[in-house]
Amino acid sequence: MSRRVIRSRRSRRRGKPSYRGLLPWLLSLPARLRVRWALIALVMVTAMGAYGYLLVSAPPMPPSRAPSGVSGDGAARPAAGRP
Q1: Would you say residue 39 lies in a domain?
Q2: pTM attached to this predicted model
Q3: 3-state secondary structure string across the chain
Q4: What's the pLDDT tens digit per position in 5-41?
Q5: Number of domains the chain contains
Q6: Domain membership of residue 33 as a residue range
Q7: 36 domain residue, yes or no
Q8: Residue 38 located in a structural domain
């Protein structure tokens, strides 16, 4: 193949990107900037941090609302992990 043919194929592929609005353009931005894995890791660490903060800062459960181990039919169930 001649260089002229290769160049024409390249220019056809590049073309105008087919973004049809702001949301698809923003969602494809990490992939176009090649920061996909960094963004995934950042979002995951942020979510884990928020959940950890929620667990640490939550008030303790009052004794009146704690699970009693008794089912709705009145039969006592053994606690998990005990024989």
Answers
A1: yes
A2: 0.47
A3: CCHHHHHHHHHHHHCCCCCCCHHHHHHHHHHHCCCHHHHHHHHHHHHHHHHHHHHHHCCCCCHHHCCCCECCCCCECCCCCCC
A4: 555 555 555 556 666 889 988 888 888 999 999 999 9
A5: 1
A6: 17-56
A7: yes
A8: yes
